[in-house]
Design goal:
heterodimer; B: alpha+beta; 2 domains; two-stranded antiparallel sheet
Chain lengths: 198, 276
């Protein structure tokens, strides 16, 4: 587990395996909260935060509780349960001890509870048989990738809002078309990360 | 069979543990919710127009509840009734809310002025403004693509004969349009105001005359006619000081181009409290 492999994990989470643009997870906030840059960044920071926390909790549960007892098939159910409870707990804690952070992230935290990108990251960590540290780096990279997608797309949204598409394309259709084009552009990163240290 | 039981038990136990932790956490780390905030917030209309100067009704309620301000009469859409309710909650004397209205300082419709260029870009004043300050003959006047209309929460603004008009029966004076107008043509005035300068052109009289027959040429006739000395001319444009104006209407009678007009805004619209 060299430093290089960790960097590769982070970079692949950001560019190649971008959860939103390449794996189509977390589309809900991607379309819903990307109207303004401010909201998009707020949401993304909350997602990074929750992805890291969720990984830190679910990885030990899987490796020390579920797998040894032959209950690996309970993964999805248990993860959803634990992540939901965790986000709720975190919300309570920061509400009490860190009001400024609560004001910044507060509205987004409940939204993330059921975000499939978060669940996707935690499950991918297990599927790819990452170690705990690798899993944390993967979570961080995926979170930053989500942020990149959100920030880029909020810029695109700003442009489509002020343009005049044909009547039948107005609103969600043009948003989905532009999301598809943005996603296509990310296919250009294929193979970039593997050759990062050549 | 035992597999199912084991799975059910495992998930139940994990769920229970989570539930217990959450229950304890919510007790231990309960944050007392400010009751005053909730009560004040209930009184406010919920239009989130920002006329009070805070970020929406939540922001204003927060400021009031936490003692950051004691002015309960800042809510313009809510008017006196909301001020009284909020005052009752906080135990503060409400004072009076002066109903406001948006005034558009341009009367240069298609009869009095024309177009300078053929603009075919995005249908928005802000965009047209970027192209040599709009396509009208008068670079000070209303562009008429309705940026103000699009932000008006009450749909009180319409574009007629090339310029924006405010329907005073619907306008609440929230000031969103004034913030949006790229020409800064819109001001928020008290509803008691009756004399309006409907021009914003600060060019010399002769230049103004060339581009618009309705424009203020800075002839000083109104200044001389005003019995209260409420009118001044700055940059070839008449300005009325409403703290001195008595609404006598002398200025409108003598105005050579008709850009000072008399109008009556009537009473403020009754705000329908938004349910959310």
């Amino acid at each position: 587990m060299s430093f290089k492999s960790l960097i590769i994990i982070v970079m692949s989470g950001i560019l190649v395996n971008n959860y939103t643009l390449r794996q189509f997870l977390g589309i809900c906030p991607f379309l819903g909260v990307s109207k303004e840059l401010k909201n998009a960044t707020g949401m993304s920071i909350a997602v990074i935060f929750v992805m890291l926390l969720a990984t830190a909790v679910t990885w030990p549960i899987q490796t020390h509780l579920l797998t040894p007892n032959g209950m690996g098939y309970l993964q999805t159910v248990v993860f959803i349960l634990v992540i939901a409870a965790l986000v709720q707990l975190v919300e309570t804690i920061i509400k009490k001890y860190m009001p400024p952070l609560y004001n910044a992230l507060g509205v987004y935290l409940p939204l993330i509870t059921t975000n499939c990108a978060v669940l996707g990251v935690t499950i991918a960590n297990i599927d790819k048989q990452y170690t705990f540290v690798q899993a944390l780096f993967n979570a961080f990279g995926s979170g930053v990738g989500f942020m990149l997608a959100m920030v880029l797309f909020s810029g695109v949204r700003g442009q489509t809002e002020s343009s005049e598409p044909p009547e039948s394309f107005k609103g969600l259709p043009i948003t989905l078309v532009s999301a598809a084009i943005l996603s296509l552009s990310f296919f250009g990163f294929n193979g970039v990360v593997e050759n990062l240290f050549r | 069979m035992s597999t199912i039981v084991l799975a059910v038990v495992a998930v139940t136990v994990i769920g229970l543990i989570c539930a217990v932790i959450l229950a304890i956490a919510s007790k231990v780390m309960a944050v007392p919710v400010n009751e005053t905030y909730a009560k004040v917030r209930e009184c406010l209309p919920g239009a989130n127009c920002g006329a009070c100067g805070y970020a929406g009704c939540d922001g204003y309620a927060d400021a009031l509840a936490n003692g950051m301000t004691d002015q309960v009469n800042l809510c313009v859409p809510g008017g006196n009734s909301v001020a009284r309710q909020v005052g009752a909650v906080l135990g503060v004397d409400a004072g009076e809310v002066t109903p406001k209205v948006a005034v558009i300082h341009c009367g240069g419709n298609c009869d009095s002025t024309g177009l300078r260029t053929d603009y075919q870009g995005i249908h928005s004043c802000a965009a047209a403004m970027l192209m040599y300050g709009g396509n009208g003959n008068c670079v000070f006047g209303c562009i008429g693509y309705g940026d103000c209309m699009s932000v008006c929460p009450q749909n009180a603004i319409c574009i007629e004969r090339g310029i924006a008009h405010v329907d005073p029966r619907a306008c609440e004076g929230c000031g969103q349009c004034a913030k949006k107008c790229p020409k800064n043509l819109i001001t928020i005035e008290n509803r008691t105001v009756k004399t309006l300068v409907t021009c914003h052109n600060q060019d010399k009289g002769a230049l103004t005359r060339k581009v618009c027959s309705h424009g203020c040429i800075g002839c000083y006739k109104c200044v001389k006619a005003c019995p209260e000395q409420a009118i001044t001319v700055e940059n070839f444009l008449a300005r009325i000081d409403y703290s001195k104006c008595r609404n006598c209407g002398e200025c409108a009678k003598v105005c050579t181009t008709g850009c000072i007009v008399l109008s009556d805004f009537g009473p403020a619209p009754v705000m329908e409290v938004a349910a959310d």
